[in-house]
Structure formats: C-alpha cells, structure tokens
Amino acid sequence: MFPGAGRNSYNNYGPPQGPPPGQYYGAPQGSPPMPPPQQYGPPQGPPPGQYYGPPQGAPPVQYHSQASGGEYGGSSKGAGGSYGRPGMMTPPSTPQSFGQNSGFTFQYSNCQGRRKALLVGINYFGSKNELRGCINDVKNMSSFLNKQFGYSYDDMVILTDDQREMARVPTKDNILRAMQWLVKDARPNDSLVFHYSGHGGVTKDLDGDEESGFDDVIYPVDFEINGHIVDDWMHDIMVKPLPPGCRLTALYDSCHSGTALDLPYVYSTKGVVKEPNLWKDAGTGALNAFMSYESGNVGGAISSITGLVKKISNSNSTNREQVAAMKASPADIISISGCKDDQTSADARENGRSTGAMSWSFIQVLSQQPSQSYLSLLNNMRGLLASKYSQKPQLSSSHPQDMNLQFIM
C-alpha cells in the first residue's frame, strides 16, 4: 500500500511503540526487487557504528520494493499564529530580487499557510550498521513540531523501521513517494518540513554539479537491495516543484550532509555566504566572492555573487543552463544539516535516551528560546554541540538569506 492509502494519516496508527518481534523480519515474498541503479558508485565514508555514516553490508531484512495503494491523507490546514517575540525582524512579503537586474527573484514565506511534515528515522535494527537514536529523533521532532509550531499530527507522515505496516517502513520507494506527497499542491506561505535521521554518505558525482566531485546520499532501510537516494533526486523532488513563497525546512541528521539538498548558498556562524557552491565554471566571479568573504568584505562578496549571476544570465543558452545548475529557487528553502560535507554526525545520548546530536540540539535551542534569528539558531546549535561533539551544523538556502530575520517554520 502507498502510505496513507484510504485517506488515513499518521494519527490513525498512533506513534511507534518500539521494534516489532523478530519474526517480522522475514524474506520478501514473490519476485525480488530490482537491483540498485548502476550509475552511482559505491558509498564512501567512515565506518558504521555510533556515527550516522554510510552503512556496510546488508540490512537485517529485505523489504518489498513496492508499496501498493493511493495517496496520503491529511487536512494540511494552517495553524496560524506567530511564534516570534514582538520587534524581531520578520520576512518581507514582497518578491526579493537578486543578480543586479538579472530578473531573478525569490519570495520568503510567512509560514502561515498549510503545514505538512515528513519525518524519517531509521535504526537499521539487527544489522552491524544499527543506530540507536534515529526513531527517537522522529518521535521527539513530531512532538516538537506539534507543540512548538502548531503542526497537526494529521498532516505528518512518519516512516520508521519499527513499523508493522509495510507502507510505514522507510524503504527507498516509500521515502521517494512520501517526498512527492510533501510538496504536492504546495502554495505560497505554506510551510513544509522534511526531517531525516539515519545513515548518510557520499557517492561519485556523475553530472558535474558538485565541486567536491561527490554527491551526498541518504540510505533507506533497503539500501542494499534498491540503493541509496542521491541529493540530486531530493532536489528535483522537493525543491524544483515549489512555488515562490513556499517554505521547505529540511533537517538532516546524518553524516556528510552539509549540502544534502543541493542548495547553492551556504552560511557560516558569521552570517555571510561561506561558499558560492554549485556554480559550474564560475571562474573569477566565485573567486572574488570567496576572497571578499575571507577579508570580511560582506558587501564585496554579495556584489561578486550577484554580478556572476548577471554575467551568466545575459550569456548564451549554455551559460543559462549553468544558472539552472546553480540550483537557486524562487521558493523559500532552508536546510540545516548535522555537519559539514566532510564530517560525521554522532549517535548521542542525552537525558538517558539515544538521540542524534543535531536533532537534539535543534529542539533544545528552540525550546529554550523559541524566538531566534537564523544566525543565532545556527550559533546556539553549534555552541551547544561544541562541548561534547566535533561536528558543526551547517545552514544552506535556495536564495540569499538574511540571517538576521526571525527563524520560522
């Protein structure tokens, strides 16, 4: 069944109650699933264990690759209300231009429209890749979104590998279908959340859009059979369809997840563009932007970046394709990841329970102070983690982001 068939949503099944009995993990019936896509290379990265890195070997069970049925239900009604304290900067309601008269615009969301969330947590039960905190992350996040930001359980889809119903298990097929559900019929001022807690890694980049030469990937529970999910796919499914003014907040608690949604703008704790990544053949424009940032000249960095966009946009069709490769969007998309692309994310233990360090810090910081800017949120998360963990959360966006605006979702 396709998750949510019969117009049932998460609240009809109740929250997960822990791993199912051992007999649940049987071999699949009928024809075996298709092998993983051959165009992607083998995962690279740190060994499994307490880190959310790429898993090794086969998972404890081979799930059916296809789930039958219809669509997710849920009312997707906006909760309304404001979660910031008076006086804090709120996002402007008009389209914002960038690129020095290039015609490129984006629009912030006020997050007062419909709210939907897709939460994925994978513990990889019984395998040598087993993690302990990912399902707890999802439980914590669903409760946090409901209580802190007014998300209804009716409008959440939760995929965890302790579910008895196959439609609720985080297979590759179920995750991709759920991503499509998340962005379906998205409108301006909607607020969508994607949260992933599980193994992550990298694979060889075959389309040339990654400066590092590697794409970020996440690992479904059936990765050994059906392969991983690459960042290009996640961008195509969850970013490209969104209209101007629609918010997507993506939270990745996995290794090598710094740019897991393939967004072009990356921000540091100083609040300025850290690297104008994803520009093919950017040349001196990108170099000038980087040098301006390094010297503390924020205005120069932004000027170099927007000048580069204008230069590309006014060139021939081949260069206009490079603008598309930049992967900016007219929508309002923010991604917060557990670490940089070259770091691992820790499976932590807080208050006597296993949890992902990034998920824990995100919830802790916003629970203690709900009204924060994007810059203070990133700094406070990093500060909270610094005393225990080496990883540094990363924030990226689909457009030039004013880091002094109030964080909303």
TrEMBL record:
<keyword id="KW-0378">Hydrolase</keyword>
<dbReference type="GO" id="GO:0004197">
    <property type="term" value="F:cysteine-type endopeptidase activity"/>
</dbReference>
<feature type="region of interest" description="Disordered">
    <location>
        <begin position="1"/>
        <end position="101"/>
    </location>
</feature>
<comment type="function">
    <text>Involved in cell death (apoptosis).</text>
</comment>
<dbReference type="GO" id="GO:0006915">
    <property type="term" value="P:apoptotic process"/>
</dbReference>
<feature type="compositionally biased region" description="Low complexity">
    <location>
        <begin position="50"/>
        <end position="69"/>
    </location>
</feature>
<feature type="compositionally biased region" description="Pro residues">
    <location>
        <begin position="30"/>
        <end position="49"/>
    </location>
</feature>
<dbReference type="InterPro" id="IPR029030">
    <property type="entry name" value="Caspase-like_dom_sf"/>
</dbReference>
<feature type="compositionally biased region" description="Gly residues">
    <location>
        <begin position="70"/>
        <end position="84"/>
    </location>
</feature>
<keyword id="KW-0053">Apoptosis</keyword>
<dbReference type="GO" id="GO:0005737">
    <property type="term" value="C:cytoplasm"/>
</dbReference>
<protein>
    <recommendedName>
        <fullName>Metacaspase-1</fullName>
    </recommendedName>
</protein>
<dbReference type="InterPro" id="IPR050452">
    <property type="entry name" value="Metacaspase"/>
</dbReference>
<keyword id="KW-0865">Zymogen</keyword>
<dbReference type="InterPro" id="IPR011600">
    <property type="entry name" value="Pept_C14_caspase"/>
</dbReference>
<keyword id="KW-0788">Thiol protease</keyword>
<keyword id="KW-0645">Protease</keyword>
<dbReference type="Pfam" id="PF00656">
    <property type="entry name" value="Peptidase_C14"/>
</dbReference>
<dbReference type="GO" id="GO:0006508">
    <property type="term" value="P:proteolysis"/>
</dbReference>
<comment type="similarity">
    <text>Belongs to the peptidase C14B family.</text>
</comment>
<feature type="domain" description="Peptidase C14 caspase">
    <location>
        <begin position="114"/>
        <end position="401"/>
    </location>
</feature>
